[in-house]
Amino acid sequence: MALNISLNNLSLVQISLSLNQVMRASMPVVVAAVAVFVERKVPTRTELVALLLLTAGVIVSVFEGKASGNTFGIAISITGVLCAAAMMSTAGRVLSEKMDVLQLAFYTAPVSCCVLLPFFWFLEKDRFLVYAQENGTAVLAIVLLGSTVALAYNATHNLLLKRTSSVAVTVLGEVKIVGLLVLSAAILPGESSQFTARMTVGCVMAILGFCLYSHAKIAAAKRGGSGGGTVVAAQGTAQEMRRSDLEEGEPLLQADRPRPQEQAVIQVMDKPGVEHPANAKMWATEGQMRVVANVQATAASNYYPQTLR
Predict the structure, then answer these.
(1) CA distance 124 to 295
(2) In which element (H, E) is residue 281 found?
(3) Span 145-149, mean pLDDT?
(4) Which ranges of 98-229 would DSSP assign to H, the alpha helix?
(5) Alpha-carbon dihedral of residues 20, 26, 32, 35, nearest 10 degrees?
(6) Least confident range of 32-41, 85-94, 193-202, 294-303
(7) pTM above 0.85, yes or no
(8) Residues 85, 34: contact at Cβ < 8 Å?
(9) Residue 185 has pLDDT above 70, yes or no
(10) Which of 99, 147, 216, 229 is 20 to 30 Å apart from 42, CA to CA?
(11) What residue spans define the domains of the chain?
(12) Closest residue by Cα to residue 108 from 124, 86, 123
């Protein structure tokens, strides 16, 4: 996050704001691509179409028709986008497995300080010292207030990331941009004349992309999954389950089972009084889980198969 902020601010000195916003509008697509490798979440075809439509709509809305800048500014802006995508996806995975939002803020704060310190020392130190001498104790109040606001923002951002996903957070960020454009045209005097037909088309495209993405996620939730992002993760869990096969004579009920959303239906066709061969193998449907057990004729008395949904 520190590199994202510093590189983005530095790029604004080299390129125009319009070009910067165009490149940062691609954030949902970049985060979705990074999440495939970091979080092992693969978007479905509908979600991918929705992300592309949303990104295109935001680009059309924020682009002012001309862009200026140099190669260095474009390069550091793209690097900032990649750093932001990596941070979002990594934080999403860490929050879903190991820590809460305040712990994440606690561990990332020293790293951010070390990353930003060289930028401050070489680019802003002299001007900051002059400002501090002129304003005295007010500088301390400004720093403390800014730090408090930054902590509140990071905690809120991480909580949203924990409750949703890295891609969903970037989608909401794009919708925020469209909302600001529409509200500024509706509320601020003179802004309505700046809201062109091109911006209207872009906002409509972005809203349609957001609605399509929301529909895909809601439909996946109703089916009992979490979209295409669970496909790779479920297969990985299935592979890990293979090393926890049952030992000789261990009851079937003691098998280590994956979480319900990652477990397939196990069908055990046994009846009291019917003997089963030693080391009988029962394969879960779709190859998601395997249970190897020594099933005796008495196993049916203490195990009743259930259908998991």
Answers:
(1) 72
(2) strand 280-283
(3) 92
(4) 101-119, 125-135, 138-163, 166-187, 197-222
(5) -20
(6) 294-303
(7) no
(8) yes
(9) yes
(10) 99
(11) 2-223, 231-301
(12) 86
In the predicted structure, residue 50 carries a pLDDT above the cut 90: yes
Report d(CA 304, CA 253) in Å as an integer: 9
How many Cβ atoms from other residues are within 10 Å of residue 174's Cβ? 25
DSSP class of 164: S
Amino acid at 111: V
CB 65 within 8 A of CB 19: no
Report whether 202 contacts 18 (CB < 8 A).
Answer: no
- Chain position carrying tokens 């720093």: 143
Closest CA to 270 of 248, 296, 232: 296
**Are the C-beta atoms of residues 33 and 102 closer than 8 Å to each other?**
no
Arithmetic mean of pLDDT over the chain: 76
Angle formed by the axes of helices 27-38 and 45-62, nearest 10°:
150
Question: Amino acid letter at 213?
Answer: Y
Which of 36-40, 87-91, 168-172, 290-294 is the least confident region?
290-294
Average pLDDT over residues 10-17: 86
* 116 touches 6 (CB < 8 A): yes
Structure letter (DSSP) for residue 246: P
As a whole number of angstroms, the distance between CA 209 and CA 57 comes to 8
Question: Is residue 52 scored above 80 in pLDDT?
Answer: yes
Please, which residues bridge with residue 293 across strands?
A: 280
Region 171-196 average pLDDT = 87
Tokens of 4: 């994202």
* Lookup result for tokens 């802004």: 191
- For residues 161 and 31, the answer to whether their CB atoms sit within 8 Å is no
136 vs 69: CA distance, rounded Å: 38
